[in-house]
# Entry
Amino acid sequence: MSPTGLARYATVFVLAMCCAGGAARAQAGFQAALARGIQLREAGNLTLALDALRQAVAEARSEPARTRAAAELGATLLLGGHPDQAEPLLRQAYAASSGAPRAVHALALGNLAAQRRQRVLALQWYGEARQLDPGPIGLRAGLNAAALEPAAALLDALFAQIEASGAPDAERAPLLLNLGQQALAQGAPALAQHALAQAARLLAGQAPSRLTVELLDSQAGTAELAGQLVPALAQSRQALAQLARLAPGQGELAIPLEARLGRLYRQLGQAGPSLAAYLRAAERIDAMRADIPIDLDDGSSSYRSWFEPVYLGLVDGLLAAAARDPAQAGAHLRRARDVLEALKQAELQDYLGDRCTVDEIKGDSGSLIPAASAVLYPVLLADHVELLIESADGIAVFRSGADAAQLRAAANAFAAELRSGSPAYARTARQLYDWLLRPLQGFLAANGVSTLIVVPDGALRLVPFGALHDGQRFAIEALAITTVTGMSMTNTSVPAALAGRALVAGASQFGPVVDKFAQTAVGQRFAAQLRAMAGGETRRLRAPGMARAAPDGAPLSMREALALPGVASEIDAVGRLLPGTHMLDAGFTVAAFSAAAQQGGYSIVHVASHGVFGGSGAASFVLAYDDLLTLDGLQALLRSEGVQRHPIELLTLSACETAEGDERAPLGMSGAAIKARAKSVLGALWPVEDAVAVRLMGSFYAGIGAAQLSKAQALRRAQLELIGRAESAQPWSWAPFVLIGNWL
# Structure
């Protein structure tokens, strides 16, 4: 389903309610507010629609009128990406209705479950909607179910049902359009063309509307997929012309249309019009950014559907413009950098599932690049990779020798080799150095760079850049290398003090949290490993945050397997370096941690416990002794008034790790720092031996304390010390430690 289908569910909802006719006639103010809210929603102006529908709820004078207004408000909240607010309203309407009106609400509740990725529940609601209404509502439910279970045969059957339904043209057209879009996405172009042609026939002669614009958009997409660039261009321009004739408040329809123009013009060799189209698309996004939901109405991510293709297309055009026009190269490159920063913000918002948390920290951030430092943006484009680099003295771009697919494959291979301790890493380390760092050597030397700040993209987040190798030495031996999620999300102020009080917490053994951990997806996978080993399988046991061998023939309980015996010595060693509040094992409860955090005044928070950062903020957590500390929970605990008066300079997450092979997982560490309002976070990409972790932490804290080094330089010194010891010289021992955020 196309992301432009914002109002199609709402349109069917209104038609069904009109047909069912269940709402009692109320006073004129209520009717006017309700009608205005529905009209605004159909036009795509959700913000004003919500205001009008809230007014309708307030002015309703009868229970049926209040139920109908609440249902319309719930449907609009759902379209706007507010499922928690929508659910009680939709459930209330469902309970108070029967027949076709109840089918409408079952459909809405199915959409709500789909938005939450609750696939089985969504299919149950869609099935009920189909049983309650064999007409347009049931067919809509069937189409939504088909989107969750893609199958060409199912779409063929639905096409026949829509054609045989006898529904009016105004109700069949949006259903056929939806079906055509799904067929296109499933790689069934013949069915897509047939369904779209039927929809076009039903809409022939109608005045421009959202539906006709979406139809032209889908037809252009079909032509583009078939390689018919000129017809696709013409249909996209026709759709934009129709859109200009519609009422304001429907700007989201223009975003994919302008993005397609950008792609098509680029393929046709028209660089100027391509760049202009991407600029218009980006301007549309920027104008409505605060109102764009994280997930679109079809369940797709707005980041994946809108932000990423538009912003990357714009960056590609700006970099090409810089190459064509050396006199304006600097301006084009700086604009490209700004667009990349906006893209990084959108990606972290997508990961965390909200925009507010990221937007709040941008006001605290700076973009000043200190002397002897440079910021590197590897840009993975469709068919090539660019290396955009900026120092205090200038900005430049270099072409990598790899394309995006090669670089992603090498990055994933390198991460896997280091995690497994494979000597094959050496070849990959040299290849990645040649692709990512060797092209920059002249720039780094000319600008006297000693600290490189990397803003990684995609699979490159899994790569410890310090472990890249030039054939003679590791990159960390030449430079301090650190990471930021984006400069616009990084507070670059010099720390006031890093030798102040610290909150140090750890768990070497676990209590009630074990049962709660067992209910998580990670815990269930871990339990399966334990059962396999108890059954006689010999494999390496991987607890989150650690790796160790289970004794042969001695099954471990989950509590035993989760034990971290090295944490006790780590808390002792770190505690001697960092005065403040220290808690271990049963002393490290969520309540105790919260009470300590409320006091504030900590420059460092050090947590030594299991933790996993997965593909989303919701899949990331740390284990206290008694309960899970989610990212939202961490935010609640560490954003007290005391913490706000004395912001945390550094959050260290020792014994935590990122999910293996998940390129978004390192965003969890960034998210943890942002949620805690910490300027930087130190964590690990994969588990390491206890003794190595203790040694590195001790050296690092001594560096930022007595030696008064920057955090980046202190981490480099600690890693060089590990390289100098035979037992920890290999990169799988020292490379996983990464510093994200403020490096000063």
Observations:
- The first strand starts at residue 373 and ends at 380.
- Residues 173 and 199 are 5 Å apart (CA to CA).
- DSSP finds 32 helices and 13 strands in the chain.
- The longest helix spans residues 329-352.
